[in-house]
Amino acid sequence: MKALQVLGFKLMRKMPPQLRNRISSSIAKRIGKLDIDAERSSFIEKGSIGRHIASLCEQGYTELDRPLPAEKIEAIKDFLGTLKCYDPYHPEHGDFSIDNVPPETHVGHYRREDLVSNPDIMAAANDEGILKMVQEFLGAKPTISNVTIWWSFGGRSKAEHAQLFHRDLDDYRFCKLFIYLTDVSSETGPHIFVKNSSNANKLLKIRRYTDEEIKQAFGQENIIELSRPKGSAFLVNTYGFHKGMLPKAGNRLLLQVQYSLKPIAVETYHPGKRAGNIQYDNYINRLLLEQK
Fold it and tell me: For residue 51, is it within any domain?
């Protein structure tokens, strides 16, 4: 079964966008929607949800109205201080602390199974305003298919991997929540997104692209640098071109939550324990949290 799922994932990545969109609409109709009360959101101001949905669908991203509060950020960082990182691109380094980072390592990721036990992380992932926007974007109730936090380390000689422009293609339809856990400037590795590229039939081959290729295809005016203070949050359709800029100095810490129609076929899920007695929707969280 897993081999068939992986094969289907590979075929999906080769489909033309029009076919992928038709299939995603068919999947969404079968899944259906939930009644979500967006008025209880910690991130979205009342009356603004329609504007955010339109921006996400049309331009490919939207910046949320309110930040993650400073006390929540500090609580998450205190929690991370008890964990080790790993570099998915260099597994030979094993686990390491941020005080002892291998010099050739660009990123330090925390393990999903640890992160889902943290109530502040999962509260942000399950914010009702965010879930409402994501549901309207997907056309169906969302599945949280990944939660990750990683450091991007400064002072490296050149950009690598996701620090180069690329499209994500993880599911038929998906989007991602980003929350900065450190202040991010032009020097410390801002997220770069190419506005209007998520619906553009240009540069469709899944590979890394140079800055010049992106500039020629979409124009400098559409390349958005998201240098923002810690706590800033934004939803992005990362089928649109994007990259995390290589930090020149300092380190960037980022929380990312992925919402999709289905589980990601190349992922292996091990649902973890819920923090306390917090109630989250079982369907939305079924891949990451044990069912209540």
Answer: yes
Closest CA to 12 of 203, 231, 22: 22
**pLDDT surpassing 80 at residue 277:** no
SS3 149: strand
Q: At what angle do helices 49-58 and 128-138 cross, to 10 degrees?
A: 40
* Domain total in the chain: 1
Q: What percent of the chain has pLDDT over 90?
A: 71
Under the banding of pLDDT at 50, 70 and 90, the label for residue 157 is low
Can you tell me the mean pLDDT for 50-59? 96
Q: CA-to-CA distance for 259 and 171, rounded, in angstroms?
A: 10
Q: How many CB atoms lie within 10 A of CB 202?
A: 11
Token pair recorded at residue 291: 């069912």
Q: Which domain holds residue 104?
A: 2-157+169-181+252-260
In this structure, are residues 133 and 49 in contact, taking their beta carbons and an 8 Å threshold? yes
